[in-house]
Amino acid sequence: MAAVLERQRLVALYEFNPSVMLAEGQWPFSRQKPLAVNVGEVLEVVYDDGSAWVFCQKLGPEAPLGYVPKDYTVSVSEYEELLKDFENQEAEGSEAAKGF
């Protein structure tokens, strides 16, 4: 049985709406297409050549593929750490507010 390689998963930290770039002719690639993403969307990496852009696919059957800015995303594990840090800060803030 052949081993199945799992694709790296990323989470979008920012919305990426390439429609403005496309309309103004600012999309940097001629043949590749962008992928619009919303905050919190989980993406699978299809190809990463180490540049500022990563080729991803949204999750699900018949999901679209395209390029997103790499700096708009983090790995799932990094995203989970960011959420934990945020929750801890919120809890600390709530505790501090009770003291007033």
From TrEMBL:
InterPro entries: SH3-like_dom_sf. This is Abnormal spindle-like microcephaly-associated protein. It comes from Durusdinium trenchii.
